[in-house]
Amino acid sequence: MPPPRQTIRAFLAKARSALTAPPSQRPAPLTFVVGNESADLDSLCSALLLAYFRTHHHSNSNNGILHIPLCHLPRADLALRPEFHAVLADAGAGPDDVLTLDELPSSPHLRPEDTRWLLVDHNVLTGSLGALYGDRAIGCIDHHPDEGGNVLRVDDISEPLRIIEKTGSCTSLVLEHCKDIWDALSAEEVRGKEGTETTSIDTQLARLALGPILIDTNNLGDEHKTTEHDVHAVGIAESKIRGAGDVSYDRAAFFARVAALKEDISRMSFRDIFRKDYKEWTDERTGLKLGTAAVPRSFAYVVGQKAPVAGEGDFVEELGRWGEEKGLDINAVLDGFVDEDGVFHREVLVWARGSEKAVRAAKAFAEVNAEKLQLRTWGDGKLDLDDETEGWRRCWDQGRLEHSRKQIAPMLRDAMAGSD
Ligand SMILES: [Mn+2]
Known about the structure:
CATH architecture of the largest domain: Alpha-Beta Complex
Number of helices: 13
Bound molecules: manganese (II) ion
Strand content: 15-25%
Low-confidence stretches: none
Distance between the termini: 56 Å
Mean pLDDT: 92
CATH topology of the largest domain: inorganic pyrophosphatase (n-terminal core)
Helix content: 40-55%
Largest sheet: 7 strands, mixed
């Protein structure tokens, strides 16, 4: 039997005790739900929601199986995500309640065969988790291009879960997928007791979902990103808030509060800004490594206005240092921001360093995609560079706004793959 409905905080405590129990007292296998390595709001909340709903699912073959939501980041990096803290607080929980890579037992104490993984917001497990547990994925819900990863068929799951659709936010797909479970939980509790607990759990879950969906679609206003799935999912969540009689919720105010937290990088070091929303890939054949940092403010702000943190150099110096730390051949920074007039912009910086192959790949990316992305020199070329030792660097204003990292990272990866 699935457990009676718990608060999110109580659910996380259950997940923690299962994960940290001695191996002999641990459920086997352990079922994890994990988002992608950028560990943005969408990844973090998708994993929490899918794990919560599947754990409370009453009527399928997963009946009552505890799903552990794992934040795909070291615990220290939670501090870089105040927007997640705010949404968690609205859901009655805090950063100390969630589980991160720090809580995952080290590999000899958690054998791959004792685990199974549901992926949200990506469809092939990457990074250190991928190296260990990559072939233990049993399904995914995602809105990135399909990388065609294998899904492990497990006997007690009749149809592997595999949903890949274009949406603004992966959380929208999770919510649509879990709507019936949620409805059943709400109905049952209304019947079961008159307490206010029920209604507050519904509004907590709703805010956990609305945070990423509104952020990823710019309050449903970004025409390039918003899909009917996102609109539908916002409807599902807001109907729960209304059903619970919560009159404190106001969509515009909620969005503004979470967005302001996400965009406030004023006190962060450059290194923290680069790693706040970071993804990397290595091309297996050429060995070239790409790192991409997504930044919520303009280059003009990051390069010119942000006050440096004590002891750090300027933007370019710190970006170079970051590339060295990560061993990057291609170091990319992508931003997306709304200007004072409320207009959305995107900018791209690509820095190839270390080998001719890397420079060739970066130049090929620019040649092939300049028109498609409408790349225009940024800041009179003041960040551009052509140097034998320092490499090749270009910074552009990106005319075509519909292309985010979801599309540009594959373009860069294609260029790396063809750089021989
Ligand atoms: Mn996402």
